[in-house]
Amino acid sequence: MSKILNEVLSANEQYASTFDKAGLAMPPARRFAILTCMDARLDPARFAGLAEGDAHVIRNAGGRASDDAIRSLVISYKLLGTREWFVVHHTNCGMETFTDGTMRGLLKHSLVTATLDKDGWHDVGQGPGSPEGDFIDWLTISDQHAAVTEDVQRIRSHPLVPHDIPIYGFIYDVATGNLMEVPEATRLGVAA
Ligand SMILES: [Zn+2]
Questions:
Q1: Cβ contacts of residue 40 below 8 Å, gap of 6+?
Q2: 164 Cα–ligand 1 center, Å
Q3: How much distance in Å is there from the Cα of 143 to the middle of ligand 1?
Q4: Is residue 11 pLDDT above 90, yes or no?
Q5: In whole angstroms, how far apart are CA 77 and each of 67, 156, 161?
C-alpha cells in the first residue's frame, strides 16, 4: 500500500473513532460560503473558524469564479440557503506564475511534472504531451487585487445570483495568516 494511502486511512480511522457529527443537517448552519484556492497552505476551516456543518467551502486552482464555481454557489444558496459569500485569493499563488500559453506549451511537450526556476516553468519530461490544453481556459492571475475584483464582479453580475447576497473579496496572506480585504471587490459585491 502507498505510504500516503496508508496514512490517510489511519488518520481517518482515528477521526471516525471519536466521531460525533452524525446529527448535522445538510444546509450549512452558519449560512455562508467561501470560494478559495486549492493551495495546500490554506486551511479555510482554521483561517475562518469553521467546524463541520458550518459553511460551504468551494475550492479550485486560484479560487476563481469559474463556471463550475458558480454552479456550486448557485446550489449553495438555491438549495442550501447560504446568504453571504466570500471570494478568497491569496499571496504567492501559483496561478501568478504562468499564462495559458505557458501551460499549453508544457502540456504539449509532456505530461510529466514541470519544474520552476527564476526563468519560469520548464518541461523536463519525455513526450508525448497533448494539445488538449489549448481548449482549457486556465484562469491564471496576473494581478491579485484585479483577479479578486473580477471574480466578485462576475459572480455579482451572474443572472442566477440574487442581488441580496453580499459577496466579500479578500486576499489571504500566506506569510501572516491574515485575511486582507480588497475594498474595491467588496464594494462591487455589495448586496442590493
Ligand atoms: Zn493559489
A1: none
A2: 28
A3: 13
A4: yes
A5: 16, 13, 9
Output the pTM of the full model.
Answer: 0.96
> Distance (Å, rounded) from C-alpha 126 to C-alpha 130?
12
Q: How far is the CA of 19 from the centre of ligand 1 (A)?
A: 31
61: Cα separation from own chain's centroid: 6
pLDDT tens track for 54-88: 999 999 999 999 999 999 999 999 999 999 999 99
Nearest to 76 by CA among 64, 67, 85: 85
The Cα–Cα gap between 123 and 186 comes to: 39
C-alpha of residue 40 to centroid of ligand 1, in Å? 8
pLDDT of residue 99: 97
pLDDT tens profile 95-151: 999 999 999 999 999 999 999 999 899 999 998 999 999 999 999 999 999 999 999
Give the Å distance between the CA of 72 and the centre of ligand 1.
19
CA of 20 from ligand 1 middle (Å) equals 32
Answer whether residue 1 shows pLDDT above 90: no
Q: What angle do the packed helices 144-156 and 67-78 form, to 10 degrees?
A: 50
Cα–Cα distance list, 175 to 62, 107, 134, 179 (Å): 17, 31, 34, 11
